[in-house]
Amino acid sequence: MSEAESIMFRAGKEIMLEKLWRKFFSNPSQWWDHRFDKANVRYPDFKHKESQESLWIDGRLTPKWVEAELAALSPGTLQRSVFSWNIKLSKFVKNRQYTQALGLYQRMQTEGVLPDKLTFVRVLNACAGAADLLEGRHVHARANQSNYQEHMIVGNCLIDMYGKCGSIEDACRVFDSMQTHDTVSWSVLIRAYMRCGHGEKGLILFQQMQRENFEPDIVTFVSILNACANIEALEEGRNIHCQVIQKGYEADFFVVNCLLDMYAKSGSIEDACKVFNSMSVQNEVAWSSMIGGYLKCGQGQKALELFGVMQQEGVEPDSVTFIVVLNACASVAALEEGRRVHAEVVQRGWESEIVVDNCLIDMYVKCGSIEDACKVFNAMSRHTVISWNAMIGGYAKCGRGTSALDLFRRMQLEQARPDNVTFVAALNSCASMLSLEEGRHIHNSIMQTEYRTNLVVQNSLIDMYSKCGNMIEACRVFNSMAVHDAVCWSALIGGYVKSGEGMNALEAFRQMELECIEPDMVTFVGVLNACACIAALEEGKRVHAKVIQSGYESNIMVGNALIDMYVKCDSIDEAFTVLSRMPQHDTVSWNALIAGCVKCGQAEKALELFQQMQQNQVEADSVTFVGVLTACSSLAALDEGRCVHEQAIACGCDSDIFVANCLIDMYAKCGSIEEASNVFNGMQGRDVISWNTMIMAYAMHGLGEAALQLFAHGDVMMDKGTFVCLLTALSHAGLVDEGEYYFESICAIYCISIAVEHCSCMIDLLGRAGRLDEAENLINKMPCQPTLSVWTALLSACRVHDNLEIGERAAKQLLNLHPDNTSGYVMLSNMYAAAGKWDSKGEVEHLRTNRQAFKSQARTWIDANN
């Protein structure tokens, strides 16, 4: 080109640019402003929205007046292009700033910027990331208006968004409305099913995808393997593994990690190991999956060992690794290991990760260190509902119900929203503390939430009211429920049993059967306890048959309840049969049978059972020793009792207050008051039973003065039984004046109502002293109806002191109360014989024969070594 032509060309271009800039300034709103988001300097500063004409401010031919005109434009005159908005949207989504992305989209709409396909893709990604279903539906409606739903990429993003927001129905609706699908469409829908907990449907969809000749890709295999992992579909997972190999994806980083995770979660640790060992690079994801696999298989210790190997290999753990390892520590209660892992969490900077903190709380709670859990909780910058639940549940678990409820109140004050797990933990705390009023407050809070109809929460309410003894409220909650399951019936039955309403418990069980709800283990235990508390043997046998039919006879808890039921129904042979059929026994099984033998008067058999229990290497507890010592007491078997005492010391059970009280009673009844006194004096803590037992021990041995001294030094609140023991001691020692003083002081000084047992002791005391008229007068003045023991005491005294007149009156009253009482006939007959009234004696014997009032054959225990 010649110089003249070049000058003309340049002049022409300047004229065109002058016109284009004039066009720009005549209507700037028709141009996109790209000045602030240009990815490349060559990209134009302004672009016409329709004609796509372009302008550059720094161009060589740009008129000089343009800069001044641009500065004079009003703010907001120029609009950024949708491209500019999309760039910013992409950055927000990439950085997981989903709220900002959605805010930017709202601004786009306000400023009238029309979204394009990429805009909808990015905004739907933001909705999915924020799990904002409502906003996602609004965006979907706008995409429909703009006819962008027909674009496959937008349709796929809609499926993905609905899946991540938990609306599988909407995801399926979008999928079905799409005219065509690609592999991505199928993959995201499979993933949506997996996320919503419908792994089985995901597998069906995967098969349908293949039938329609769509080739699965890496994303598909990742989604379907995750679905298999979630539902533990091992065989289906193995089949998909074969397809992965056929497609050549077995070396893919994501697929191989999903394979490993699938095998680990499906319980096939061997297959998981094979995949793990075949990996060319074992990253932290693979190690975490393997550690989690061992944990799932119940091998928590092995999981911790593998974590050690991972560290030796120099692989850096991530937050998921620490979560799995902390769960492993919790599973085996490895507190020290957990503390070491905690230190490493802090060292690597993961302590600010809220999920890790929640796992630390859970680990410390399950390892029994509530203080450490509290430190982690208090150090957290913010708490999720999972954090609150872990701490509240932890306090409830370790018996600190007050702390649990205090934290629940704090949670409400901090405007944290409790969920069903929170309410269940708080209600359990109320139940454990029998805090009815607090339970009612929580019930009121529940009624203001959507959890008022939650089955688990309703069951916890029934349990709380039942354990607090308010069966009316428990029934009200039960009757308000739309659906009943075995858990709520079990809670109701258990509540009736606790309240001593055995018949109502059995009636509830019958209603449960009428509703065709299958009882579970807890139900059977509750019903058998109901039969036991009212000695309903026939009903118990019917329940036993149901237990066998339901396959629960081998369950150790049900077996123990059966033994207890038969024992309390005085059917000891049936109890032995149940024990013989149980595949395994625990301490509770043996305790129930030992206690049953003692109750049925088979103390020798109880001692034999104790020996068998030891031969079977079942560890005895305090309940065992209470039963065995009671057997020794009833047999006056001192040497046996001493051996049992030694074993209690070896087991550390001698410090248990119930065992110590039984030891005092055993030594006293076996004639060794010194050893009884030694046990009493050696006790670290005593209750009123301890004092009563020792006073009664002195009474048995006629040591009234010692009993009086002990009573004077008592450091606990005395009860009705204390005075029964004291008056018995004074009676046996013949201390009448002291007896009269303390009898008068029961009500006057100690503010205890005089009971028939006190009167019986006082009559025995007066009778032994020969003051029979006073004894009879006392009976006539008694505030309550005289019982068998009262008339027996008077009649016995009359026989000793040959007072036939009062004796006849006493015998008449006794035999009117209990016509089959053998001792009454015998004492009266002997008194007539001593007085030479043979006719009267004959009449008594004749009456006794007519009434079949004869003693059963007695047995005596003889210790050959004494």
Automatic annotation (TrEMBL):
It comes from Diphasiastrum complanatum. It comes from the Eukaryota. This is Uncharacterized protein.
